[in-house]
Amino acid sequence: MEPERTGQKMMEDRDDLTGEHDGGDAGQAAFALLFCVVWVADSFFLHLTTQLTLRVPSWVRGPFAILLLGLSITCAWSGLMIVFGEVRETPVVIRSGIFGVVRHPVYLSEVLLYAALSLFTMSLASCVVGLAASLFLYYLSRYEEKLLLKRFGEEYRAYMREVGMWFPRRRL
């Protein structure tokens, strides 16, 4: 019986996965923790930057925050299931499902989560941390795209032209 594989070990054992930045997981975890601390502290205790909650009622911001949260969950679940839920015998540029809409759905899901939580409580401090995390995720996306271009060449370059990084492209 083969031992269960998880995390980085699974990626090392799968030839169909291209890889990621060595500091990507740690950086994402650090930003997630920092965001949570700032969001909870500012939104529920300190209220240093939540003055906009007085101007924008919860019945306005709540539905938008819930919509962003739903999109975040959908992007994360779909992206992770496609990448890690199937082993491809021959490595390919994945264009199915959510990957036909955006190239980095899991990173997009993190950005949407930060935006949803920030919008719900209107914490400007958490917006700043969310923006910094988004810039880090953009850096990771670009790094991984260099790996994918090196591996798949023109096939990935064509995919980049057809599918937006985080925002869907309008198809004519």
How would you describe this protein?
The chain is an all-alpha fold and 172 residues long. It has a domain of 116 residues: Four Helix Bundle (Hemerythrin (Met), subunit A) (Up-down Bundle). Helix content is 66%, strand content 0%. It contains six helices and no strands. Helix 2 runs antiparallel to helix 5, helix 4 runs antiparallel to helix 5 and helix 5 packs antiparallel against helix 6. The protein is elongated. The N terminus is likely disordered.
Please outline the major beta sheet: none
The gyration radius over C-alpha positions equals 18 Å
Helix content: 55-70%
Chain oligomer state: single chain
Structural class per helix/strand content? Answer: mainly alpha
CATH topology of the domain at 57-172: Four Helix Bundle (Hemerythrin (Met), subunit A)
Instruction: Spell the H/E element sequence.
Output: HHHHHH
Low-confidence stretches: 1-10
User: Quick one: overall form?
Assistant: elongated
Give the tally of β-strands: 0
Give the termini distance in whole angstroms.
Answer: 51 Å
Beta-strand content? under 5%
| Overall pLDDT confidence | 91
According to CATH, what is the class of the domain at 57-172? Mainly Alpha
CATH architecture label name of the domain at 57-172: Up-down Bundle
What is shown here, in short?
The chain is an all-alpha fold and 172 residues long.
